[in-house]
Design a protein that fits this description.
This protein is mainly alpha-helical and about 450 residues long. It folds into three domains: about 5-105, Fumarase C, Chain B, domain 1 (Orthogonal Bundle); about 110-145 and about 160-205 and about 220-360, Fumarase/aspartase (Central domain) (Fumarase C, Chain A, domain 2), CATH 1.20.200; about 365-450, Orthogonal Bundle (Ribonucleotide Reductase Protein R1, domain 1), CATH 1.10.40.30. The protein contains 19 helices and six strands. The strands form three sheets. The protein has a two-stranded antiparallel sheet with strand order 1-2. A two-stranded parallel ribbon has the order 3-4. A two-stranded antiparallel ribbon has the order 5-6. It is elongated and about 100 Å long.
Amino acid sequence: MEKLWAGRFKKALDKEADDFNSSIHFDSKMYAQDIKGSIAHATMLSVQGIITDEDCKKIVSGLEGILCDIESGKLKFDMEAEDIHMFIEQVLTERIGDTGKKLHTARSRNDQVAVDIRLYLKDETKEIEELIYDLIGAVYEKAKEYKDAIMPGYTHLQRAQPVTFGHHLLAYAMMFKRDVERLEDAVSRMNYSPLGSCALAGTTYNTDREYEAGLLGFKGITQNSIDGVSDRDFCIELMSAYSIIMMHLSRFSEEIILWSSWEFKFIELDDSFTTGSSIMPQKKNPDMAELVRGKTGRVYGNLMAVLTVLKGLPLAYNKDMQEDKEAIFDSVETVKKCLRVFSPLIETMKPLPENMYKAAQNGFINATDLADYLVKKGIAFRAAYKIVGEIVAYCGENGYVLDDLPIEIYKKHSDLFDGDLYEEISLESCVKKRVSAGGTGPESVQCQLENVKKFLKNK
Ligand code: ARG
């Protein structure tokens, strides 16, 4: 294909340089957005009397034909083309003749690509949000089913206080809920059309940017043409939102990996989401969770790559900016793949509440409640804390847990202890007494469940 810009040059582009410069092998992904943007542009040009209605009709039907043929596989991308924008314009001109050459009036590839990425990211982010909603749904169902299953809650990965499995899972529902909100927030800031900024300075034609923006579903137009073509903040915002999603998925993965180990055995993953070993017949490995954890690195890496590409760029457009795309596409695809595998992983995992309960019985996780017991009997928390610390040390040395330490020994540490302490420090009552809003107590967990359900219903 001859370059659309060949007129100024006496020599053709060197082959190696041509390949180096070309982006069609990745930006062809945005063909639908590019065509949509071009249709809106041609429509605006005709409404403004810049091209005739007849030319507009020819251009629009030519573009629709191209879309159709790409989708049916009839039209293949020409890897010799410089990028998706040039490819579509060239095919259009081949198909409809000189009228095709009018499409690029009052436009530049600089505003064209800026609008294409925004349209692409709007579409993809919607899809990612849907996938997060699915995941929240899966987490919600498990949390509801296991809202009373007692397990040890951890700090420093040391058993800390009893919580319920439902409460623990709902912590992830809160993270994913924020992820949706974060995406929405970033999209609302991105939702302005740069089309009409042209190369960088705007145009001499009487264009109607607002109209064009409306046709493309944008809330409005970008205010400064130089910013319009050089801004990639929205890519960085979304890529950091994707990174945070991955960070959440990775933390969840880490727990799933731990919980499914023999050391914990809090859950069993379904056969359909685990793999075996080529040598050890007994193995059932949590590869999906491990891969999600592993892929988090590339999504972070992509964010760093784009931040670094942009950091030294003078205004306005620079070719460096073409480097944003592979990183963005990879992050979008990775996040979608991870979410698609994660929801069914959660749906099909089988919690093992007996094992969770057993683990909760060791590790003195009701020690705080024992101290609270003394506080209720009238002593200061710090003093109670010290007494209980000594009792825990005694139990550790003599093979007791707090629940089976005889009352006589308790009394040696403080005469405030009585037989009612055993009921007070049972795991069930430790959980039930956590009545503070957001705590692990049943009312709070119920309230969290209802809020998550409402969030899912209002999507
Ligand atoms: N392929 C280019 C990109 O992705 C399109 C914009 C090119 N503009 C230009 N003036 N060379 O950034």
